Amino acid sequence: MVQSVIAGVDGSPESVAAARWAAGEALRRERPLRLVLAWPWLFNAPPTVRDSDTGLAQEMLLEIESGLRGDFPGLEVSADRIADHPAEVLVAAAEGAELLVLGSRGLGAVAGFLVGSVGLQVLARAACPVVLVRSGEGAPEVRGANGTGEVVLGMELERPCDEVVEFAFQAAARSSARLRAVHTWSLPSTYGYAAAPLSVDLTTSLAKDAEQALAAALHPWREKYPQVEAVEQVMLGSAGQVLAEAAAQGAALLVVGRRVRTSPVGMHVGPVAHAVLHHARCPVAVVPHP
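Structure for Universal stress protein, as requested:
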């Protein structure tokens, strides 16, 4: 069975922007696009209200679907309207999907995404990668990595995640874009209480170690994807902030990982992904991994 690219829609400008981004990505992947609309009030509404809202929902879906067919020739697109709670519907749709794309309201010209409770639930539970597409005042043009802009990859070296790296390299390969692998490092905790400033030699040595480790981690991926130009960037600082700053230089896509957790407590999205979503202005892909 061919996997689909899923776009969650609700009629908002953010979801329409997400649907358009998903349409372009579906064409690049040569996959069908499936629009999914979940209206929770249809589930418990009285019959007369439900019939009226069902008609409005169907009309909205048809309008979005028709617009995509006209703007993206060759796109195979279908639309489903499901009367249930949005988070549950989208998490279920992500099962077996290749990609799930959601819209998220921007926080203004400088800050990144405002992720609501539904978006956070889906991000924390979706089995497939989730891309959040920002729309709103000050947001850059919604586009895929179609040869313009870089694919920025947040690279973890202590516990490297093949799923995240592969997603980023494939995105860059599909669009003939350059990939920028960004790794952040920090001083060992023992130096946090140093009475005197650290020597330049020590910080230079630590930075060089990080650069060598990043180059070694990227080596097999450069061999697997020789058509992708991959550059390295090693920075001292907070991962979320550094990644957002790297993506602000015209990136088309920022890719980060999310470790799958089974604990019922804690931040299931992860601190780096959470920080990136707050600051980034380009589309952000959150890739689950063990």
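The radius of gyration is 20 Å.
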